[in-house]
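User: Predict the complex.
Assistant: Input components as received:
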Amino acid sequence: MTVNRQWLVKRYPAQDEPLSNGLFDWTESEIPVPASGEFVVQTLYLAPGPAMRGYLEPGHSHFFSPVPVGEVMRGRGIGRIVASEHPDYAIGELFLGSLGWQDYSKQIPRGKEFVFSTKKITKPTDPVSLELGILGQSGVTAYFGLTEAGNIQTGDKVLISAAAGGVGSAAGQIARIKGAYKVVGLAGSDAKCRWLVEELGFDAAVNYKLDDFDAQLAKTFPDGIDLFFDSVGGEVLNTVLPHIAQNARVALCGFIATDYDDTDKGPINYRHLLYKRASMQGFIVFDYWERFGEAETLLREWHAEGKLKLCEDVTEGLENMPQAVQDLFSGNNFGVKICKVAG
Amino acid sequence: MTVNRQWLVKRYPAQDEPLSNGLFDWTESEIPVPASGEFVVQTLYLAPGPAMRGYLEPGHSHFFSPVPVGEVMRGRGIGRIVASEHPDYAIGELFLGSLGWQDYSKQIPRGKEFVFSTKKITKPTDPVSLELGILGQSGVTAYFGLTEAGNIQTGDKVLISAAAGGVGSAAGQIARIKGAYKVVGLAGSDAKCRWLVEELGFDAAVNYKLDDFDAQLAKTFPDGIDLFFDSVGGEVLNTVLPHIAQNARVALCGFIATDYDDTDKGPINYRHLLYKRASMQGFIVFDYWERFGEAETLLREWHAEGKLKLCEDVTEGLENMPQAVQDLFSGNNFGVKICKVAG
């Protein structure tokens, strides 16, 4: 390639507006050239994530500043170093970090933020995109969510929301590996539910969009849910809470159902935390950045032993990034959403 | 006394109806006589509690069955054994248990429920009513709520809701004893706020009914709240959640603000549990029944050392029990609400 294709932020979306190409400007600029202490990475894969919508809503995110209008849209990904004026980063090496929605990014290794959010990939998986998925951040999120926030115990009856998503599909499998007695997933279609049971080995799956969701939960968990790994919130959380068991744990991973909904009412049934002497624990995977290696080693071992299936849902082409992110909110993905940009 | 005065349940209250004498029938019956294996207790003190309203709302409580219409209203208290046909319970001994809203109750010691909710008082406090308050269940609730559900740490900045109540007034003082860096109470009047600071040694107190509640929290906790001991819920919890610190803990003791409110919306700001990697842990003091002695010993030591002030708000007379319970919902009490029946 001789140009650097880029998605620039054109305007921020309205409250309920889906992400679309119209929010961005597609431009072609020159491939950057590194100055001393810098290097340039060619993007191979980007990892669409729900947080990306937050980059476009000033004042919304508690973790990230918005991306200013006119700048390249922010995004994590994996690429190959194609030019370098930094002694620690050699041409040809693989790099994971904030690459942006573009073919080429200039990286400037300095400051704590760089140290705690980027890394070189020295033993790449095949395909290397797995480093962004179940063998990377999705799997690590599921791992620490279950083990730290959820304090998973042998024999637990576990429920996973957004179970067909990247984190959820990993969480269900890891729960089984950690000795759960029963692993059940929630998903928004019968096709996804079948996929969870038949392909990923969940014991059962429940379609939360059907009218009998509550009754299905009661039937599936007659003795209650010991651990609920929740990335959804909203009505799903409300419906689940009355079904938690004594001393249950809710691992709070996210709230995609109400993330951009100002009418959020909170978990109406939170009193069941008291009734059941239960806990709800929030966590952020980046708090465990220094322990990513520990989790990634385990995830690779489990995968090598055939215990952990990897499932990628690949969108082809940088031009489709807006839709790839929107798919996460529409619930269209089976497994980890990845956008293949080159390679 | 030659008769047994009793409050019988006449009807259940409507949704928003306060407790009043009109819900009960005041009757006088004969003093019961124990059969073999039974004994009779004369009520000295009753402990009005918010749970009592739940006894009058079928289907509401997750812990107790409702008291049937026509039966004596349920209530815990302390009394003296005045007749006994049981070898382990002697006339003259003090007994703590479910006495009911009446002068004399027949006790039948059998079954697990009796074992786990009654006891003889062998070293009575003076007055013995303290056994129902800060040296008893109120203090024990505060103790296990802080140490177990709240996992209190030296240096914590602690906020207590319903701080002028029985449990709250104990919790604030125990938090100080356990090494809290700052102890702040929430109360519903300026008089109570002054009382918390001047009499009980809280570092500060905030009137949650004033318009600047949120601003006062921000000013009082510029670095956030490490531990929130909450018995209130509702708008108080909503307002507090954005002020929690990283890794904060919310000890969920109750939700008196919305306990009998069907329009409960849940803690809108529960997402701060995720933003702050915080937890909310529900607890029930009766789970610690077998450890009550451990807590009661500490509470007495602290009281003897002058570290723990005892504050009772005594209503005189069995005839005033309905109002004494209603006072808890109206926020009229300073400290532990006690009803003195005889003695």
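The radius of gyration of chain B is 20 Å.
Let me know if you want any component modeled separately.
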